[in-house]
Amino acid sequence: MRGCVAIFGVTVALAGCGGGTPAPVPAPAPATTTPAESAANTANDATRAWLARALTCGDRAFLTISQAEQRERLRQADGVTCTPESDNTALRCAVVPALRIGNADIGWFVLGAAHSGVAPVILPAPPDALRNAMPAGAGELASGTDLGDTRVECALTEGALAPGAIAGVVTHPGDPEASVRVCAFELNDGVATCTRTARGERAYRIEGLSRGDYVVLAIPGEAPDARIGYTDCVAHDGGDDDTKDRGDLPCTHELRIVAVPAGKTVDAIDPADLRTLEAAASWPQPPPTE
Known about the structure:
With 290 residues, this protein is α+β, with helices and mostly antiparallel strands. The chain has 2 domains: 40-155, no CATH class; 164-276, Sandwich (Immunoglobulin-like), CATH 2.60.40. The protein is 16% helix and 32% strand. It is built from 5 helices and 17 strands. It comes from Noviluteimonas caseinilytica. Keywords: Signal.
């Protein structure tokens, strides 16, 4: 027994001299969550779910309030930090951890000021990743920058995103029996919407245009390598002296910007500046015909 005591004193982990197994180590008690913590977690989850809806046009009331009111509301969301842009035209916010919207993890967003019944939101994800998160009819998705961001246009009133149209008459001294193809290019993403007139017809109308800024040009049916632009140039007395339609200053042949409001038709957009394909190299190129 005396030798046994000596061994036990050296090897404390042994239960005794009889070779018994060590006593099991008790498992740590599971962490408990207090009722207050559970309520806070539930409230934060609800706030993040609301923010995901608001950033995809699901809360018109939030998008219409002032920037200061939006910032105060966002203070209530854990992990959201917002800073106004230097010109106070937008509110830039960071989200930690990232917010799941559709198929994208959103680590930041920009809230723009509402204008003409539309509130813009910039999200760092491609449009296809966000499309399923957008309520039907609540807004539109468009590419925001060449970095892959998306500009979300949220409609704040009925009809705020209704399509508009551009109409006019093409001035062209060529074959009077030929048709004319007319294209309107949206400046934000460069997408062209085109129409072709009937043979011998010079009046045109391009419908289904999203609100935004466009440039317009035409392609004569009998001269596909020519371009007729809606520019700052007009001919004087049938000549080609390249003068502006106001005064006698030289014109630049730059395509004029046509602003198309929602649900409206912009008339009297009459392309008349005939240029060769080489001379019109800076103009956008129409998509190929089918």
